[in-house]
Amino acid sequence: MLCARECPDWCIYIDSHKETLPAEGGGRARTRNVLDRFAIDFALCMYCGICIEACPFDALFWSPEFEYAEYDINELTHERDRLREWMWTVPPPQAHDAAAEPPKEIAAAEKAMARSARGAGGRGAAERGAGGRDGPGRRP
Ligand code: SF4
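^ thats the input. predicted complex w/ iron/sulfur cluster below
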């Protein structure tokens, strides 16, 4: 929804509703947002790219497609089905520079994996008890 809020022309239309999911395994019921409509009015869009920059999920992309002139201005509002067809025209992202830092998401995932591996190792040492070097039963 940040895209619609940040768009200076207010030409992104989003409709949604909340849906309640039944509780599983004794938990409480959950609600989730369900998208009903996502459309962009290209009669208003000025191609500033703010929506693409604002999206925290990288869900919007530039397309080199530009031949979509219409005789009827109403046809310039592209609903999500038509926008989805454009995905085939989106070029793949550029490869990362070999000398660049890895993406933050990969570094965070590696750190979390190392932490969980350390946690599993720590539990193993504690389970070994007095025989472990760092366990609670360590002798002076
Ligand atoms: S590119 Fe178009 S849809 Fe996106 S923020 Fe700019 S005016 Fe709005």
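Residues 28 and 92 are 41 Å apart (CA to CA).
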